[in-house]
Amino acid sequence: MVWIVLLVVALAAILSGVAISYVAGAAAVMAFVLTDHTAYLGILPQRIFSQIDVFTFLAMPLFILAGDAMTRGGVTRVLIDLAMLIVGRFKGGLGYVNISSSVFLAGISGSAVADAAATTNTLVPAMKEQGYRTDFAAALTAASCVIGPIIPPSIVMIFYGALMNVSVAALFAGGIVPGLLMAVFLFAYNFWIARRDDHPGGVAPTGAALATILRALPALAIPVTIVAGIVFGVVTPTEAAGIAVAITVVLVFAYALVDRGGIGAALRTTATLTSASVERTVMLTGSIFMILFAAAVFGYLMGILRVPEQIAAMVQNAGLTSAAYLLLASAVMFLAGMVMDVTMALVLLVPVLIPAAIAGGADPVHVGVVSCLNLTLGLISPPFGGCLMVISAASGVNYLRLSLAILPFLAVQVVLLILLILLPELTLALPRALGLVQ
User: How many Cα atoms within 13 Å fall on the side-chain side of residue 425?
Assistant: First the structure.
């Protein structure tokens, strides 16, 4: 009864517009009182700081900074032009460009919302001009931006690795095949829709093909350098994030120098863009750590109440296999992701639900990649999908209309999620080949 009351109060507060970190923190403290565990409240500051005192978390603001600077510095436009060159000529070409651009950007920003903001203003108007329905263009943009947090580097995987003490390098390697499979599934759906609705093709970037490729090569080298360095143990995720920021600043300056033709103008442009990116990174990092503070309080209570152990005992008594339990846990996380922030859902649900799956024999890396994909789908799931809100505002498509248009894409991605749960080798083959998991 206590949990039902808390859930109702929390949902009412969220719907009224209260920040989710405040809601979670207040609900957690109320739970301590209502479950008669107020004696433990005095140790909360220590628990909160121990929860976030993780070296890997330092990579998060650096990757955010690199991704935002690249978007502001025109790197996004360069990668979209490359996608236009490769797949824009086919029937339904701009749909393929939309998906391909997200694959390229995934190796840079690691954030679905950042990719959504970067591609919506460019691709949705272009697709509309070519005769695509605006709601279809916006929905495809939302669906493809989910690739961002799965293909490394991934901010959500950094969170998961820090929370569950799982190798971030192994998670990154495990996310490559699922991320590419998501692109393949979306390509297949776009292929079918393009023929059913007679979408146009023949779109190509302006300018010479060789110039487009040469301009994009430095940007493409960034994710390769980052991922290879982490996976092969040359650098830590935090060091890789620092390298990404350094390369980004150099790259933004180089593009500005080419476009503006003067060192002084390029320096001023780079300084302005970097300053704006730093400001945004500080704001986003602060909001994320507020959520982590609140989630640490709730997670402490779950530990006191021994909820993970109780769930593991229930699974064992019910005789569920690891795959069956993982499907059940994924359903819970998917439903939670529809109404909760991804970071909040991850830090609240993963420590509670996932240990039972691992205790039942599931591989921690496989479970981690599946969980990250599952919770990320919440960004495009009605009624409170974060990416849907960003894309609706940027494209001018009514939110309800966009929520209906996204459902077929969401169904395709849920099918992939189930496939990944049932076939762990799709996730584990590459980490095993690299010697990152047994």
Answer: 0
Structural domain of 383: 37-433
Residues of the chain falling short of pLDDT 50: none
The answer to whether the CB of 69 falls within 8 A of the CB of 168 is: no
DSSP string computed for 102-167: HHHHHTTT--HHHHHHHHHHHHHHHHHHTT--HHHHHHHHHHHHTTTTTSSS-HHHHHHHHHHT--
Residue 17 in any domain: the answer is: no
How far is the first Cα of the chain from the last one, in angstroms, to the nearest whole number? 43
- Whether residue 27 lies inside any domain: the answer is no
Q: What is the pLDDT of residue 187?
A: 93
Quick check: is 2 in a domain?
no
Amino acid at 282: V
Type of residue at 231: V
Question: How high is the pLDDT of residue 185?
Answer: 95
Whether the model pTM is above 0.85 = no
- Give the C-alpha separation, 50 to 312, whole Å: 25
Cβ(382)–Cβ(403) under 8 Å? yes
Flag whether 167 is in a domain.
yes
Structure tokens at 315: 């699974």
Phi-psi region of 53 (alpha: psi -120 to 50; beta: other; left: phi over 0): beta
Query: Residue 52's pLDDT is what?
Result: 67
If one counts the domains in the chain, the total is 1
- With 0-12 / 13-18 / 19 or more C-beta atoms within 10 angstroms meaning exposed / middle / buried, residue 202 is exposed
> How does pLDDT run across 289-348, given as a tens digit for each residue?
776 677 677 767 766 777 666 766 776 666 677 788 888 888 888 887 776 777 777 877
Residue 71 neighbours by CB under 8 Å, 6+ apart: 109, 114, 117, 118
Q: DSSP letter at 339?
A: T
